[in-house]
């Protein structure tokens, strides 16, 4: 059968659409697979039955404490999504991806990095002090961007304000799952240690991964825009990018462990992070209004 010009063009168009649709479905399946792996990985210690009844009780109480900030934070996330006219579906995908995709990928990367350092420099004072400060931003920040890129592709999100919110969602999801992981990690040390640990993480929740990822993603977005002609955004973009990585580094460094009669180190870090995320929000608003 010989196809005429219009028939050939129509067939090519339908083939291209069908191929694009299949590609999108394949990417969606891959994302769901990564999510499922992460969910199984993060919950396996609870489902294998090795914990005692009292340990399950400690996990339950610690989780309730964790929810003191997690529930209001998630509510605020979806509130802003509605206010900014962004569908709840990509926000949910980004939130879950931050927790159950970036989480287990970062865990494996950090473990392999630790094993490598122990093999190369097992007694190094430098690495004993700074391994976490270097490894955490080096691996966790890029991995937290992966769910955002999946969501941008699957849902076609393009507005800078929406991308900024998706980044915050990914960081928040990572933060909540990481806090829950620390509950499991601290469990062998007993009730007081586990509960005090999660109380400390709840107290520091206002300036954590959601801030780091929001700054890093905004910085990356502005750098890409600068490469497309908006050269005035390059310096600002690099500033936010470095700030996100830098805050993460300092938060995991010996600086955050400095103990003084009047607490200084953590408050300074928290105030700096919140100030920068506010500045980032102002930048996003200005760019939105300039369109």
From TrEMBL:
Provide the alphabetized UniProt keywords: Membrane, Transmembrane, Transmembrane helix
Origin superkingdom: Bacteria
Q: Specify whether Transmembrane is a keyword of the entry.
A: yes
- What InterPro entries does the record point to? PrsW
Transmembrane helix found in the keyword field: yes
Transmembrane stretches, by residue range? 56-78, 90-113, 133-156, 163-183, 209-226, 233-250, 262-281
Q: Name one GO molecular function term.
A: peptidase activity
Tell me the protein's name.
PrsW family intramembrane metalloprotease
Q: Origin organism of this chain?
A: Streptococcus parasanguinis (strain ATCC 15912 / DSM 6778 / CIP 104372 / LMG 14537)
């Amino acid at each position: 059968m010989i196809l005429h010009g219009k028939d050939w063009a129509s067939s090519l168009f339908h083939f291209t659409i069908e191929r694009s649709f299949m590609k999108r479905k394949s990417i969606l399946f891959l994302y769901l697979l990564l999510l499922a792996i992460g969910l199984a990985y993060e919950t396996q210690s609870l489902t294998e039955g090795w914990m005692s009844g009292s340990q399950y009780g400690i996990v339950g109480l610690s989780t309730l404490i964790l929810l003191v900030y997690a529930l209001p934070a998630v509510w605020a996330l979806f509130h802003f999504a509605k206010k900014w006219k962004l569908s709840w579906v990509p926000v949910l995908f980004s939130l879950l991806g931050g927790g159950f995709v970036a989480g287990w990928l970062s865990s494996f990367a950090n473990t392999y990095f630790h094993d490598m350092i122990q093999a190369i420099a097992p007694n190094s004072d430098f690495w004993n002090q700074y391994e976490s400060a270097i490894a955490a931003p080096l691996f966790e920040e890029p991995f937290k961007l992966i769910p955002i890129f999946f969501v941008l592709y699957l849902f076609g999100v393009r507005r800078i304000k929406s991308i900024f919110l998706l980044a915050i969602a990914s960081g928040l999801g990572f933060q909540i799952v990481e806090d829950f992981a620390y509950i499991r990690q601290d469990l062998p040390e007993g009730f007081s240690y586990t509960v005090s640990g999660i109380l400390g993480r709840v107290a520091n929740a206002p300036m954590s991964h959601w801030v780091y990822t929001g700054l890093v993603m905004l910085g990356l977005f502005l750098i890409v825009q600068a490469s497309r002609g908006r050269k005035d955004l390059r310096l600002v973009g690099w500033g936010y990018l470095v700030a996100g990585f830098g805050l993460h580094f300092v938060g995991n460094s010996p600086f955050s462990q400095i103990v003084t009669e009047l607490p200084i180190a953590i408050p300074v870090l928290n105030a700096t992070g919140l100030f920068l995320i506010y500045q980032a929000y102002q930048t996003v608003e200005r760019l939105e209004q300039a369109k």
